[in-house]
Amino acid sequence: MDIKYINENAIACVFEETISEQVNQQVLALKHAFETQQVDGIEEIIASYHTLVIYFNDSITHDVLVEKIKSLDINSQMKRTAKVYTIPVCYDYGLDMDELAEYCGLTPQEVVERHTSRRYLIYMLGFMPGFPFLGGLDASIAKPRKETPRKEIPAGSVGIANEQTGMYPLASPGGWNIIGRTPVTLFDADRTPAVFYEAGDYIQFKAISKEEYTAIEQDAEYKIEVKEVEA
Q1: Coiled-coil ranges per the record (predicted)?
Q2: Structural domain boundaries of the chain?
């Protein structure tokens, strides 16, 4: 781990600079160690692929914080419990499904089967509130970002960019290949929490029909399937 100075109130703990679930587990273990210790002066901790950024106030110095980091035993935090959220997706709303399937030499149904066959680790949230960058995509359905981004992608859209998949919580311009859409509200500023998942959790997709999409969209009491697993 390399500890880098960002500014007088932020430092970054950088592990091996690669996209790897094993490396990300180290990042999350360090984050959990900090949360367990409840270190005074910490304002915010943000995890990403291979980096943990720590924001702190003037009640703790840079040097003291670095020594605290070095003293933490992250090995004891490597085993953890994570949540798996099952997100319903109607792949009939896949704006780029046919194009992606042809690019991959598959049928749209084969793309759906492969996309829903595994769970995806949330490496980080970014780009917009609640946008999850999900790792673990089957390489056979990977496709580069679109050369010309769309001016607007509907909220709830599920897309693929290279070997990652993700979800658009809000309507937005974007260049991901859209293969479906979820009726679930992913971001709600009036909800606590506004985003129900976080880095380190997992997403599992479940294919639904247009009729099921409409029913879920209109059901204010709809509950997302969630379970806890050993990560």
Answers
A1: none
A2: 2-77, 81-230
